[in-house]
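Cross-check.
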Amino acid sequence: MLNPSSTVALESSFLSAATLVLIGSILVGSILGHLAPDAGLQLGMLVDYTLLVLVSLLFFGIRFESLKLAAGNWGFIAIALLANFVIVPILGYGIASLFIFDHPLLFVGLVIYFMAPCTDWFLGFTRLSGGNVALGSTLLPINMILQLVLYPLYLQLFTHQIVETNVALIGISMLQWFMIPLAIAFLFHQISRMLLKPSAFENLLQRADKTIPWLIGLLVLEIFAANVHIILLHYAVFAWMLIAVFIFFLFTFLLSEGLTYLFRLPYAERALLTMTLAARNAPLMLVVSMTSLPGQPLIYAALIIGMLLELPHLTVLQRLLLITQKRYQHRNVPGNLPKLY
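Predicted model, tokenized:
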């Protein structure tokens, strides 16, 4: 069995590799689409199959049993949900409007990227920064369900009808691509949990988690290979998008620090709140957008560009949290904190 330090080292290496996979997929997909357009179009025809496998693995890996931990922690969960589903989407909309409102489809993609909190690798960065992983695990299924339910509403509120937001059609798409796979994945998750030993079941979940970055990379490669010429027509806007994402990350950090100070959260919850506000659920939003808003490669490209900065940003946050951990704990003695939950 690996000791905790070995596990952390492996997780850090895995998360860093995910960034390289994403960058490599963009480069390979772009080169292939430019040099061999027909092959790129053939790859684009495989997108639906990649989407189906990806969404199934995303759902299979959700630890629904962690919801039982929520009972005694509703105070923190309420803070995280209010920030993630009310304050952060409004903040993201304002930042996107300021920088790329004149480029409607890229604007929509960036707004979608900003509005959905992460349901997977933020927990890895929470562990690496010494945060409350057990409490963070309760946010995974809650965040997943809420962002799927709120997706059509956010589109109507924040996109100014730039794209068609027929709630009935989106609802049908969500049912076909998400609710049915969610039910099947949940059933398979529970059956596997009953049939396998705990160590074998956890190993299966970890293998599923480690497959996800490669599937995201394959999906990104397919998108760029099939649509590179359309995407590159707007390359000049990408710099502004990266600046917008950077400013968004800066403001989410300031928000997490403000909420930490206001509610006097202990360090473990501070680290968790920082990570859940910073990390966005680009993989799931990419899948949702490709099924609900088909034929919009610029929207998909905006989501992918957000991912480019996210993993390096989370790495920097993790280092910053660890550097300030001792000073923070000395200033905020847990025994003197007001009871939030």
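DSSP finds 13 helices and no strands in the chain. The radius of gyration is 20 Å. Passed to J.P. for a second look.
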